[in-house]
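Action item from last week, closing it out:
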Amino acid sequence: MSNAVVLGGGLMGAGITHVTVSKAKVPVRIKDVSNDGIVNALGYNFKLLEKKRKRRIISKADLQAQMLQMAGGTDFTGFNKADVVVEAVFEDLGLKQQMVNDVETHAKPTTIFATNTSSIPIAQIAEKAERPENVVGLHYFSPADKMPLVEVIPHETTSEETIATMVQFARKQGKTPIVVKDQAGFYVNRILAPYMNESANVLLANEPIESLDRALLDFGFPVGPITLLDEVGVDIGAKIMPILVNELGERFQGPDVFDKLLNDGRKGRKSGKGFYTYKGKKKTVDSSVYSVLGLKPEASMAEKEIAIRCVLPMLNEAVRCLDEGIIRSPRDGDIGAIFGIGFPPFLGGPFRYMDSLGIKKVVELMNEHAQKYGDRFAPCDGLVTRAGLDESFYK
């Protein structure tokens, strides 16, 4: 791996550029539709490197040398030298298919096209490819310069060589890769979606935002679910959820909150307001969001109950993913949840946590919640079977 191209100069593209140059020691050319995008991506990298220089992690000469390994443009210059092109553009199938076509036209026949899609099946992106064996998913988590997980997602005709090359590439970037089956949401977003949906259900039951976020912080997550939605972006959530519903079914249908928030200009941190308002590094709950959603907040649930209510749907979905072969092992599922979404490391990940509670206890809790809140809590067949056989995930 001697040269890389990153498509898209947004935050994700800039972060991928950073780990490729700084950790993997591979030079990067950034392509964006505008010079502004390239300037922003290079500026983002300069700020990251300048922070390291001030902390004496790198020297001024190192900073300059790394910046010289990054270039950018709005045309296809440098594509003919690229061993891999990492695509980090908007979640739009037609646009991503066009990117595949552009890369196949301008790059080498051996160039790997790695898409950073967070939810669109890779087979759909590779559908019109002349060389589908070179197309693979490489799903980073935001911010890409910090988050340690990468999902490597082959579709049916991705070559073994492409998979192995991308696993090695991710490791050189300082990432922990897991290989995940090609289905909408892959693994991490698929287990995250029911957790976020249930958080929204708790909010719509008039629980205050602070109580909800604090409950999951106390459980051991690095941020609460409402803060997480603000960080990721309400607009991103609004794009991903319908894809999951369309591909995986009605159980992914969450409460209708996105449109109300977006119509009120609430995209999250990036727009200065979502559920919280942001001034510099400080954030405070924006109480006007309650009226936007037609709510009158009043704390009525114990925080431990809020936490388990939000976590149970995630556990259920993790077991489905294991039984459907989305992940290769409970270990991969635990690594993905801890490094991808910050599942409490001291609990060992969803599968270790279920083993520690006992599968029978997990099924019992889910049945209790199903009686209280509805069928979305009903334990999946894999859990019921394991409980009946008194099995655990780790032997």
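Closing note: The chain has a mean pLDDT of 95.
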